[in-house]
Amino acid sequence: MRDKRAAALGLAAGLVGWSLVAPRLPSRWHPGPQAAVATGLAVLSRTQLGLRPPQVWHGLRLGAATAAAVSAGIAATTALPRARQELNERDAPAGVLRWLLLGIPVGTVWSEEVAYRGVLGAVAADAFGPRAARLLQSAAFGLSHIADARGTEMPVVPTVLVTGAAGWLFAWLHDRAGSLLAPMLAHLAVNEAGAVAALGVQRATSPREQTQKAPKTREIGAPCVCSAE
Predict the structure, then answer these.
(1) 29, 171, 210, 224: which could join 134 in a potential S-S bond, CB 3.0 to 4.6 Å?
(2) Model-level pTM?
(3) Cα 159 vs. chain centroid, distance in angstroms?
(4) At CA 112, angle to CA 36 and CA 29, rounded to 5?
(5) Is 63 helix (H, G, I), strand (E, B) or coil?
């Protein structure tokens, strides 16, 4: 049991460490290394992701319902002046279409859900039990966004807390459905809906307002108080 707990804690620490290294890799490699690490961990650990019938259908139903609610909520917030200002201050990455179709689904959603909810969640549950496992993976998930917060000049502590809470909810969806597809769809909705909302607000903003944006802004898809990556 002690060896299993050490392995779980070591994996959590390793994933947090990897989150500090990955942003330093050449951007042209993204999302290859992130996806390769997550997939490799799943293969080596033989983690069951619940992506086959019948579990996948449970994940699809719960994930689709959650994703619809999340997308509707984000869309509704675009009517709020404070939310519109925040969305307008985000920087779109180079190659927006590639980011939306590859960067977010593969580099963020697949990589993070497989690594944290899939592999770490399973290893931690075997070592500590389901409840403690959910706390460990959510804590590691929150800490893994420290580099993102620093890179975008966001407050570190709120970012860690918000993404940690999101990680806990994603883990709850995973446990509830028995399939990783449920948190994947929810996570995808958070990031894609947030990115599309930001792009829509920016396109509707006048050129004069665009020039008044802060000199250092957050990249679309980066964690913020209103959404977690």
Answers:
(1) 171
(2) 0.86
(3) 12
(4) 40
(5) helix
What CA–CA distance (Å, rounded) separates 159 from 14?
Answer: 20
**How buried is 180 (Cβ within 10 angstroms: 0-12 exposed, 13-18 middle, 19+ buried)?**
buried
- Cα gap 165→144, rounded to integer Å: 13
pLDDT higher than threshold 50 for residue 217: no
Reading the block at residue 77, the tokens are 């917030």
Q: Are 31 and 99 in contact (CB under 8 A)?
A: no
Position 28 confidence tier, pLDDT thresholds 50, 70, 90 = confident
Determine if residue 32 is left, alpha or beta; phi over 0 gives left, psi from -120 to 50 gives alpha, anything else beta: alpha
Q: Residue count of the chain, please give it.
A: 229
Looking at the chain, the whole-number percentage of residues with pLDDT higher than 70 is 88
The values of phi and psi at residue 144, to 5°, are -70, -10
- Write down the domain spans for the chain: 2-219
Residue 28 DSSP class = G
**Is the model's pLDDT at 42 over the cut of 50?**
yes
Tell me which residue of 119, 86, 98 sits closest to 11, measured CA to CA: 119
